[in-house]
Amino acid sequence: MNEDVHQGVDEDHPEKRGTPVGRRVFLGTLALGAAGVVAAPPLQRGLEGFLGSAADKDPTGLTGLLPNGGGFRYYSVASSVPRKNADSYRLTVDGLVDRPTTYTLADLRALPQTRLVRDVQCVTGWRVPDTPFEGVRLSRLLDAARVRPTAKAIRFTCFDGTYTESLTLAQARRADVLVALRMQDKDLGHSHGGPVRLYVAPMYFYKSAKWLSGITVTDEVRPGYWEERGYDVDAWVGRSNGRDDEPTS
Ligand SMILES: Nc1nc2c(c(=O)[nH]1)N[C@H]1C(S)=C(S)[C@@H](COP(=O)(O)O)O[C@H]1N2
Ligand SMILES: [Mo]
């Protein structure tokens, strides 16, 4: 099976077979250039329209092993995603805050930028070492919004209309969590979730929601898209999803 495919819940982690969702989950790949593609059955039709016949031509997924995007696989659970630019992009911060705020891209660019260089790690196994991300610390946006004392968590929404993510408030306030505007020292392109995506450096890359449009402060964690399908909510690299660095038993 193509290693691009997020089938890890069942195939790589048989211990997770009894998850509440209890069905096979796949993560569809948004193919660009030579990237290999295998789509989940429910997504197949939408993706085929989007990809042309790329999936049919590569049943083995071997082309996914060819160089592409500097080692990245491109993922989207939505079959098509609108493009947003400096004119049309908006990021809303709302929920349990005293100052709900809407940011334009220019607003975000005008705030202090933080650059982090870390390894990107997808839970399926692919990894891109030493990848620079740059943007505004999420903690800064939360402070500006004046988070209320009852707040416990953040829900992230995306302008693809489908994907969601979550963090606890404590996780969201870490210095290595960014609202990212740049990746690999370039403005974030559409396929990587531009113009703005979340970047949660210490966690598997599924936490890093692409096409970020909403940051809602909530009173409890609401599991995100992949988390409702069996992946861990606390997605620390090497310490979640059955990939413990140091097994304790
Ligand atoms: N909106 C959205 N964000 C998303 C995803 C997605 O399908 N939709 N996939 C996640 C997963 S599983 C991974 S590995 C990364 C992939 O990011 P990339 O396409 O820039 O490589 O985005 C994450 N964020
Ligand atoms: Mo992923």
Automatic annotation (TrEMBL):
Pfam families: Oxidored_molyb (PF00174). InterPro entries: OxRdtase_Mopterin-bd_dom, OxRdtase_Mopterin-bd_sf. Residues 1-18 have a biased composition (Basic and acidic residues). Residues 80-226 form the Oxidoreductase molybdopterin-binding domain. SUPFAM superfamilies: Oxidoreductase molybdopterin-binding domain. Residues 1-21 are annotated as: Disordered. PANTHER family: OXIDOREDUCTASE MOLYBDOPTERIN-BINDING DOMAIN-CONTAINING PROTEIN (PTHR43032:SF4), PROTEIN-METHIONINE-SULFOXIDE REDUCTASE (PTHR43032). This is Oxidoreductase molybdopterin-binding domain-containing protein. It comes from Streptomyces lomondensis.
